[in-house]
Design goal:
It is a single chain. By secondary structure, this protein is α/β, with parallel strands linked by helices. About 35% of the residues lie in helices and about 20% in strands. It has 4 domains: about 1-385, 3-Layer(aba) Sandwich (Aminopeptidase); about 390-480; about 505-545, no CATH class; about 545-775, Class I glutamine amidotransferase (GATase) domain (Rossmann fold, 3-Layer(aba) Sandwich), CATH 3.40.50.880. The strands form 7 sheets. Strands 20, 21, 22, 23, 25, 26, 28, 29, 30 and 31 form a 10-stranded mixed beta sheet that branches.
């Protein structure tokens, strides 16, 4: 027996020795100072682990936006991995109590495994978690500790080493370029996701980006994880790590059991970190539980756990003095002890290895808690779905719609999010008695965000993100809340709609067809009255040429610029990216008809990066020379389109004669952090073609226009004189009532269009897209 045990131990050690260590594969330890990873080496390392261990399976789910492999790893006991499909079917049955009795659910909960998914580095300047994933994967396939063996036996662990593979390489490439220079540790002067940059974790209900669609369709919707742990980093001058409980508010469609289990898991992580001697752990601070844009699984029966660890300077150590620690933060004081911040971290050296150490403890803590409460987690998962199926009522989406293209997009979005949709002769019906009705309900109903203040009567307490997400209002789709109707089978896309005639200005899809006609060299005519299009000459209609569109692209990366590119490409617009040097060179009207400025601050446009803060070729902005060139472009007949904050640049630096009526008003008196507000439209204006007379627009730190009596500017859309709020949160309605949200300011033979809104907001606001598209044809 002794010889047998010795042989077993020896074989175990030999097997472990055959498994490559991270240090051997990458040439350095994970979390080493001034070392970042190449995505190709991350992928090959996970495949090397798979070849050498029976505890891991690796799958390429598809390609990223930039063509890199998008991978996930399944880690569990070998016996579990051999029966993965069996356990996936258990998850599927527990997720749908309409097909699974309580008796069968009890049996499945006793047999099944908790599915825990950990996702890393969606924000690519938050560099540590991909290294943590590599080190933790190696630990899981080599460990013989009883604790982690318990995890392997009770959990199916899905590890996504990066939700943004392209960004891993973008940041690594920039970091190596600047290593040893004064710019070491800076963020790259480009979006670290091709289209949406940091907003890639605001895409979890509109599903616009390839990486989101891969993760949702092949992981979330296939495996129904009980826990999704999303690993992030935060700024360096506060706590060392945030874990749940979350701040208020909790979105009302999140099941209370999910919220309570988030509290439980988060406090468990906090306890484990503190027991390991890690200081600076904060709970119930900074981050709320409101928007579904960041919380997909919370509307599909599972927990979304977030940790935010303090950052270094990418992989360069940071030295933080006590005086540099923030004096205030949402929910706690970073320099003072409190119930939710028991051991303040008050300065010192902070490295990427420190971040990795905190994250390794958190990884293990989440998995251990899931393992020891395996049956409870599965039973609760079933109970959450059962409560969702006990809802009554339904939403009906009429098949006859003003904008059939937007209605189809709305239904496709819901269907992609695993919402069941059936049809009757007149409507598409979404019954709320279904497992994922929370997702449908939160996207289809109007939000009433609570009036939260820093103290009674004081300034508002800032939400972590925005406060509204009502897709029917954003898309301009009629949706009716009705009594429940059941019995018919679910429908599958494509969805069929009746509505405006072909090439109607009311139909968003028309713009794609019109751009395809131009691309094919076909002529296009437009009705001056309705705005409808035709590929044949019609009496009284005007033939229009394809606009030569330029989109401003500064050295400072701007998410709204990426979203604008995304939307232009989705509707097949031809456009050029226009940088500072080309603007400063002048002669713009010879090349372009329209120049679009995304939502970007005036100083960012005018000044750019401060000299010395980045390599010289990235420093500076448009300056006075750029403003002069833009005015010359407009006066020669060009159209300048300014979106949201960039409109303040047009007013401040081009001398456009309008005034931002809310500038300087304190937040306690006027506040709108991201909401839908009602406007009335001047339907006689060319920008109004295809739009209704009244609708909501997306207001997020937006200017509100007051036109002086001596100005020749024209208001195209004005806020209502009362009942301005359509969805979300608004303080101080009186400050914007009857004032303009959209104006045209003449400039010589051309004009400037000032949007006090984001008409292409995060690929959601299909209704107001038509305002932007019309502006390109003036």
């Amino acid at each position: 027996m002794k010889r047998l045990l010795t042989a077993l131990v020896l074989s175990t050690h030999l097997a472990a020795a055959a498994i490559p260590s991270p240090e051997t594969h990458f040439g350095h330890k994970m979390g080493a100072d001034r070392k970042l990873l190449d995505w190709e080496k991350v992928v090959t390392y996970f495949h090397a682990l798979e070849r050498s261990s029976d505890r891991i399976r690796v799958r390429e789910l598809g390609k990223s936006t930039g063509g890199r492999p998008f991978i996930a790893a399944w880690i569990a006991a070998p016996a579990t991995l051999k029966r993965l499909e069996h356990y996936r079917q258990i998850q599927k049955k527990l997720a749908d109590p309409r097909k699974t009795t309580t008796e069968e659910a009890a049996r499945l909960a006793a047999e099944g495994k908790v599915v825990v998914m950990i996702t890393c580095s969606i924000h690519s300047t938050e560099v540590a978690s991909t290294s943590t994933a590599v080190e933790f994967a190696h630990r899981m396939v080599t460990t013989e500790s009883p604790k982690l063996r318990t995890v392997l036996d009770n959990v199916i662990f899905i590890l996504v080493p990066s939700l943004n593979p392209d960004g891993v390489d973008i940041v690594t490439r920039w970091y190596r370029r600047t290593l040893g220079t004064p710019h070491e540790g800076t963020s790259p002067p480009e979006l670290y996701h091709k289209y949406v940059g940091h907003d890639n974790n605001r895409d979890w209900y509109i599903f616009s980006q390839q990486e989101t669609r891969l993760a949702v369709s092949q992981l979330h919707n296939q495996w129904h994880p009980q826990i999704v742990y999303d690993v992030h980093q935060q700024g360096p001058n506060g706590s060392r790590m945030f874990v749940p409980p979350w701040l208020d508010p909790i979105e009302p469609n999140v099941d209370p059991v999910i919220a309570q289990q988030c509290n439980m898991i988060g406090m468990g992580i906090a306890s484990d970190l503190t027991a390991a001697g890690k200081k600076g752990v904060v709970v119930n601070a900074s981050y709320d539980f409101w928007t579904p844009a960041r919380h997909y699984q919370a509307y599909h029966g599972g927990l979304r756990i977030l940790t935010e660890t303090a950052s270094a300077r990418l992989a360069t150590p940071a030295r933080i003095t006590r005086e540099e620690i923030s004096e205030s933060a949402p929910g706690y004081h970073p320099r003072e002890r409190s119930w939710n911040y028991l051991e303040p971290w008050l300065g010192g050296d902070w490295t990427v290895r420190d971040i990795t150490d905190y994250q390794l403890i958190a990884f293990e803590s989440v998995l251990w808690q899931a393992a020891v409460r395996r049956e409870d987690m599965l039973r609760n998962f079933y109970g959450i779905a059962r409560r969702a199926c006990e809802r009554t009522g339904a939403f009906a989406i009429p098949k006859r719609q003003r904008d059939p293209g937007a209605a189809r997009r709305l239904l496709e979005t819901l269907a992609f999010g695993a919402v069941e949709i059936r049809e009757d002769p007149a409507d598409y019906i979404i019954d709320l008695a279904q497992p994922f009705s929370s997702f449908a309900k939160t996207l289809l109903e109007r939000q009433t965000y609570p009036d939260l203040r820093q103290y009674p009567g004081g300034p508002p307490r800032r939400p972590y993100d925005v406060t509204a997400h009502t897709l029917p209002l954003l898309m301009g789709v009629e949706v009716q809340q009705v009594e429940g109707r059941r019995g018919a089978p679910a429908a599958s896309p494509p969805f069929r709609f009746s509505g405006p005639k072909s090439l109607s200005a009311q139909d968003t899809d028309t713009w794609r067809q019109v751009n395809d006609m131009w691309a094919a060299g076909k002529p296009v005519w437009r009705d001056p009255q309705s705005g409808d299009f035709s590929d044949k000459a019609v009496e009284g209609w005007k033939q229009i040429a394809r606009p030569r569109v330029a989109l401003y692209h500064s050295h400072i990366p701007v998410m709204d610029e990426g979203w604008t590119r995304w939307m232009l490409e989705q509707f097949h617009f031809s456009y050029s990216r226009l940088g500072n040097a080309e603007i400063l060179a002048g002669g713009l009207k010879a090349k372009y008809d329209v120049i679009v400025f995304p939502d970007q601050g005036p100083s960012s446009i005018h000044n750019g990066y401060r000299p010395g803060s980045m390599p010289a070729e990235y420093s500076g902005g448009l300056g006075e020379g750029g403003a002069k060139a833009l005015l010359e472009f407009a006066r020669a007949g060009g159209t300048l389109v300014f979106l949201n904050d960039s409109a303040n640049y047009g007013v401040g630096h081009l001398g456009l004669n309008v005034r931002n009526a809310i500038r300087g008003i304190p937040a306690r008196d006027f506040y709108c952090p991201g909401s839908l507000l009602n406007v009335a439209l001047d339907t006689s204006h060319p920008l109004a073609k295809g739009l209704p007379a009244s609708f909501p627009v997306w207001h997020e730190s937006s200017p509100v226009w007051e036109i002086p009596h001596d100005a020749d500017a024209k208001a195209i859309a004005r806020y209502h004189d009362r009942d301005v709020l359509a969805s979300g949160w608004l303080l101080g309605e009186k400050h914007i009532a009857n004032r303009a949200a959209l104006v045209e300011v003449p400039a010589g033979k051309g004009r400037a269009i000032l949007f006090g809104m984001r008409p292409q907001y995060r690929a959601q606001s299909y209704l107001t897209l038509k305002l932007l598209f019309n502006a390109m044809l003036l």
